[in-house]
Amino acid sequence: xxxxxxxxxxxxxxxxxxxxxxxxxxxxxxxxxxxxxxxxxxxxxxxxxxxxxxxxxxxxxxxxxxxxxxxxxxxxxxxxxxxxxxxxxxxxxxxxxxxxxxxxxxxxxxxxxxxxxxxxxxxxxxxxxxxxxxxxxxxxxxxxxxxxxxxxxxxxxxxxxxxxxxxxxxxxxxxxxxxxxxxxxxxxxxxxxxxxxxxxxxxxxxxxxxxxxxxxxxxxxxxxxxxxxxxxxxxxxxxxxxxxxxxxxxxxxxxxxxxxxxxxxxxxxxxxxxxxxxxxxxxxxxxxxxxxxxxxxxxxxxxxxxxxxxxxxxxxxxxxxxxxxxxxxxxxxxxxxxxxxxxxxxxxxxxxxxxxxxxxxxxxxxxxxxxxxxxxxxxxxxxxxxxxxxxxxxxxxxxxxxxxxxxxxxxxxxxxxxxxxxxxxxxxxxxxxxxxxxxxxxxxxxxxxxxxxxxxxxxxxxxxxxxxxxxxxxxxxxxxxxxxxxxxxxxxxxxxxxxxxxxxxxxxxxxxxxxxxxxxxxxxxxxxxxxxxxxxxxxxxxxxxxxxxxxxxxxxxxxxxxxxxxxxxxxxxxxxxxxxxxxxxxxxxxxxxxxxxxxxxxxxxxxxxxxxxxxxxxxxxxxxxxxxxxxxxxxxxxxxxxxxxxxxxxxxxxxxxxxxxxxxxxxxxxxxxxxxxxxxxxxxxxxxxxxxxxxxxxxxxxxxxxxxxxxxxxxxxxxxxxxxxxxxxxxxxxxxxxxxxxxxxxxxxxxxxxxxxxxxxxxxxxxxxxxxxxxxxxxxxxxxxxxxxxxxxxxxxxx
Length: 799
Ligand code: MIG
What we know:
The chain is an alpha+beta fold. The chain is 18% helix and 32% strand.
């Protein structure tokens, strides 16, 4: 019973008039008469940070989300004031702060367009239950404003009209609209008037976002504790907003090993060893490319992490080696729960060193998971993370496991109402002691981080590979992710498409779904359609719970097997293209998947599109989401597009019907694109690449494309040993010129390019490569010819 009614009746509180202002380099402080302090930091010309304190005291400035490598600095900063307001001007933004009530509005410097304005702005409620404040922010929604982002929410791309919360949750068999699920990414982007900005609310408590749901013209966000602490991130392009957000929260610390972009096969569970081998040999026998095989929890001894069930896997090192010889990387699951077992070394050590989480009054946090009753390492403590990372030594260095899969790290607890720790569990939070209310959303992230550091150490000189289920903003620095326990239904195929796009526009591109569905079993048609989508997701893995039948590519009959093979082969031929997109993502933060709104925000038709997306830079994909389809209607963004299957040119800017029977899928290539291709391999590294194919799609006008390559693993590329080719094609009515500019010190194995030229509107008279004519007598029909890889300029001239 709450007796403190005085506090209860206080309701919402607001800053009053500003009575004090002070500037310290790029940090401004505004204090209100009733003691509220707004700390405004000019992080960059396009990034402003707003932080509010209701007590005059700020918490220690600490964030798991923001990386220490975030760019800082600005070109211009000017602060003026008039009777009513303070005016802060950078080279990109103008921010007004009202002297009367601390409300703010932000304008674009270029043309003074209002980007964002406080409605009530900052306000708060004292939390009579927990202490501290419930901190709130409300903004006016601008005319025609739309909203996107927020991580893994299983809903349509456009978030307008909806309300969400962030509290990472184990959500077996979630459905469209289930909220929250596995991830907490409190970052959204908004667009109006062809201008895009983002909001990153860096608060790890349970947070809420309301996009014109409660009130038609108001967007608000709030948290159950902590500070109102958010970043306003300007574009004006949505791509720039996302890229600025990953500049702040980080990008993958390095490229993934190329094999990790191959196809992965998983199931709960493959065991014993003979079953694993049966699966891997079948891939080779049927010639379906595959790079990775997974071991789910049953490989362990009684689900004890870092142990092996010797009955199922008598000699893991030998098995892993044999799999590796056959081109398979072995990936093993590791959960956070450590079995209470005084004979078990990991448990004993954790106990001795005091590494497990405790309840408020001192007892250990005890919870039931797969191993039975467990204790849980406090991954928010640096020393614990260090210990955890060391535990991987044997698994990685000795046994040869190539990647680790972190599951149940929300943390998920069985048979309790909240499905996780109670609120009173204590965490170190890197020296900022707190309860689970604050640490919950980052627990999984810190586990994945510790895992990543272990793998990085023990995989050296190879690159580590980690996959996590739970994540907070910034987790993309350490690991890839999947969308959790989905279901084998057609609606889930559509949800997978939305989630992969949304993760990409939320700064976390390395994501994919359990292809085919985790729970229940797909029929062959659904499986085929899911593979067709899945091969265009940055992370591509079939996974299923296994108790509903098999889910390998060959279990649905020959027709489906052939379709699956064909699409996985397409992925493998496109590996250099995907790898190049990955390189752009890790370097510039450009999302690998681009929802149409992100690809062309100026075209308002894209603001409500869900199905179509751009894979990488130039390939448009639209999954088939219904049974018995012979094709579908889809929107083609403006510009000209080549049908991938027959090279027929279609003009975009409208909805069109596209044929796509069960063995096909609507795929289009942007005109002007140059798409690099490798030969089909059964696994990365199977073949020495002795020629790079370049598919050139003629365009009247100019377009450039990049091809990034390196040694596909290891860190040499960081020392300049990479190969980056920039191709510019200039198409005219009677000629086509392709120029190459190459940088980086990596020397590729191949010596020649094989050009395939599509859509040339004229008959060829001659082809000149660096001033020398090449023999074209053999060219007829498809225009295909070889050119040395060092060429600078290629010139095709009309008759
Ligand atoms: O309670 O390890 O999402 O991918 O196969 C289920 C068994 C635990 C949930 C994961 C799923 C995994 C399964 N895990």
